[in-house]
Amino acid sequence: MAKITKEDALRYHAEGRPGKLEVATTKPHSTQRDLSLAYSPGVAHPCLEIEKNFDDIYKYTSKGNLVAVISNGTAVLGLGDIGAGAGKPVMEGKGFLFKIFADIDVFDIEIDNKNVDAIVETVKNIAVTFGGINLEDFKAPECFEVEERLKREVQIPLMHDDQHGTAIICSAGIINALELSGKKLDEAKIVISGAGAAAIACANLIISLGAKKENMIMLDSKGAIRADRNDLNKYKASFVTHRNVRTLAEAIAESDIFLGLSQANLVSKEMVKSMAKNPVIFAMANPDPEIPYDEAMSVRTDLIMATGRSDFPNQVNNVLGFPYIFRGALDVRATCINEEMKLAAVYALARLAKEAVPESVSKAYNATNLIFGREYIIPKPLDPRLIYTVAPAVAQAAMDSGVARKPIEDWDQYKLELSQRMGLDNQLLHGLVVRAKQNPKKIVFAEGNNLKVLRAANEVQHDGIAVPVLLGNVEEIKQLISQNQFDLNDISIIDPHAKESDGTRNSFAGLIWQKRQRKGITLEEANELTFNRNYFGIMMVDTGMADAMISGVTSHYGDVMGPALRLIGPKPNLNHISSMYIVMTKKGPLFFADTSVNLDPDVQTLVETTLLTADEVRKFNIEPIIAMVSYSNFGSVKSSEHTKALDRVRQTIDYLHKNHPELIVDGEVQMNFALNKELRSQKFPFTSLENRDVNTIIFPNLTSGNIAYKLIQEIGGAEAIGPILMGMKKPIHVVPTECSVREIVNMITIAVVDAQ
Ligand SMILES: NC(=O)C1=CN([C@@H]2O[C@H](COP(=O)(O)OP(=O)(O)OC[C@H]3O[C@@H](n4cnc5c(N)ncnc54)[C@H](OP(=O)(O)O)[C@@H]3O)[C@@H](O)[C@H]2O)C=CC1
Ligand SMILES: CC(=O)C(=O)O
Ligand SMILES: [Mg+2]
């Protein structure tokens, strides 16, 4: 990552609207009526309802999703006591992270006061506004009393994040680091630099996970916390060491773990060298760690190193926790954030780091090595799974420990809602996944040795969506599986070139020859073709050894489609096959056809495409409302020798209106009139589309269909799933070479549902 300069950071904050947050409205406000509803007189009604029943505040106001990030600026990052106003960029930053990672709205509140009574009184008095309270960057020891007292005063989730958020992430990282270094927490010698908010909380949480207090040495700005010191507050005093050490250099020698929650540049290379074998260093001071990552790593190779920084591996930062801890707590309307909820977050994070990383995360970090190991012990902040992994774990723990006032009943639905909040998913795909899981089918992957394909196979097998069969060299595939730590040990792998496949290949060769002997193919040629994995996979589907095939990541479209058409071909009543893309727009899914097969369709092909598409759309439990688009509206362009494509559309519509009156289809219509029903019904009120939302678009030819879906994918940012081949006797699907793992997974899901 390129280095960030002071100028970059200042410009980022100053340009445009200064700061990083604004307030947005959530209700219509374009008419006088809207204003009367939003404010006086309409607003009086929700006020009176809340007066009658306080819980209605969650129904009629933003309280349930609103968190206060509150600070007095006394321990801002590792910058120290810089004052309430100077801390505001950090608090706005925290609001920013709450929003982007968990869709939680934040007001940042800076309290210009260091007096504990005044702080407690202020927070207590404003708590009614909020669903939760995140205390931030209050220094120790005052922070402990502030939090303890406020927890008694308010009945909403409240947490001092520098204490507990940090402790949760640090503990998850420590669990995984020790697993890799082969050490036990209850035997580990631990040095903690810092005896403030974060340090004390981290020490306490790892103790509750098994670490021994007697194996710890804690240091503050004056050196080791020893029994002979008379300047210790009660929190520090509980960590006194009886070993005869005073300095960090003495304490760190032969230790197993160093936790830094103090200040930059306190640890030297010599100190790193002096640690025990396979040491773990978490230098978490911000913005600069106790020792820079590179410096520590240059000293020894057996070190597992983490910092609070995003520009090095293993960022231990509380951003991995607070958005999701509060999300889970708010969603069950918890009365507090208790120990059970914190531990649930620890284990959820530690577990997640061991799961295969989605391709989107590797891409976001431009990394190929995000595999559980020394350089990846903790999930990455941009991992989209965090929200639906950590938040439900916290919510469940709140319910189990009896502090949830609004328990979650349908966990699948809750996880879907979490994904939807973040725009990660939509109803249609979720419905398909549920259906696929009910009856997972055997899917053969022609390109079993491709990493993207393997990742997709790993995901669908793990999620129970499909039973993958991989084609390719067994040794090569097994090596890729183990290198990438995919959970695919029991997967079936078939190598068409292997001796064991001879029998299957011979029978496929015979079948191919039977099908193609009058098309000039000899038995020898047929035999040769069976070594090709696309032919082999197609024949597996043809003979029922698999339910569907996916290929295309490394093959040309024609190299898969050609043999598929020749060997399997269209269903008996059809002359053509056709293809469809599902384009996921903000307004819901749109079905586009034909996008990939028929270049210049005649009327019969257009009719078949429309009927096939209608059938396919119904499979998603959606009634197709079909517009046949063109550059003309219902006859506005006169027919001539230059309007052949348009005339074919018109003839198709005539045919469908006569022969399929049950189908809701009309045209020819321009795209804007197709998609905008108000516009359409004003100008063309006579159409059989009536005042309906069109969800299916039939294009006059492949050129326009293909351009349209790619345009909306690139410029509109819509996700597109396809091409879904329609009309084949058996399902064969060809994904585009540039497709992502997510697109392959989507395609497999559809293939499974198609094959059910
Ligand atoms: N990575 C992450 O996610 C997080 C990192 N942090 C970082 O942890 C650090 C501490 O934050 P926080 O606990 O909130 O702040 P506090 O002010 O509560 O604590 C700071 C502690 O650091 C100690 N300290 C200062 N100088 C030294 C020194 N030379 N040697 C040893 N200890 C020293 C202080 O000692 P004394 O008691 O004597 O003053 C104090 O105990 C900050 O750098 C912060 O950025 C915090 C939260 C999250
Ligand atoms: C990350 C954070 O909260 C801190 O450094 O204070
Ligand atoms: Mg902080």
Number of domains: 4
Question: Which CATH class of the largest domain is shown?
Answer: Alpha Beta
Helix content: 40-55%
The tally of beta strands, per DSSP, is 21
How far apart are the termini? Answer: 46 Å
Count of helical segments? Answer: 31
Mean pLDDT: 94
Instruction: Calculate Rg over CA atoms.
Output: 31 Å
Description:
Residues 163-399 form the Malic enzyme NAD-binding domain. The active site is at residue 94. It comes from Aquipluma nitroreducens. This is NADP-dependent malic enzyme. GO terms for molecular function: acyltransferase activity; malic enzyme activity; metal ion binding; NAD binding; oxidoreductase activity, acting on the CH-OH group of donors, NAD or NADP as acceptor. With 756 residues, this protein is of the alpha/beta class. The protein folds into four domains: 6-26 and 62-156, 3-Layer(aba) Sandwich (Rossmann fold), CATH 3.40.50.10380; 161-316, Rossmann fold; 435-567, Rossmann fold (3-Layer(aba) Sandwich); 578-727, Rossmann fold, CATH 3.40.50.10750. Helix content is 43%, strand content 13%. It has 31 helices and 21 strands. The protein has a six-stranded mixed beta sheet with strand order 7-6-5-8-9-10, with helices on both faces. The protein has a six-stranded mixed beta sheet with strand order 18-17-19-16-15-20, with helices on both faces. The chain has a five-stranded parallel beta sheet with strand order 13-12-11-14-21, sandwiched between helices. The protein is globular and about 100 Å long. The mean pLDDT is 94. Pyruvic acid (PYR) is lined by residues 77, 137, 162, 286, 317-318. Pyruvic acid (PYR) binds at residues 77, 137, 162, 286, 317-318.
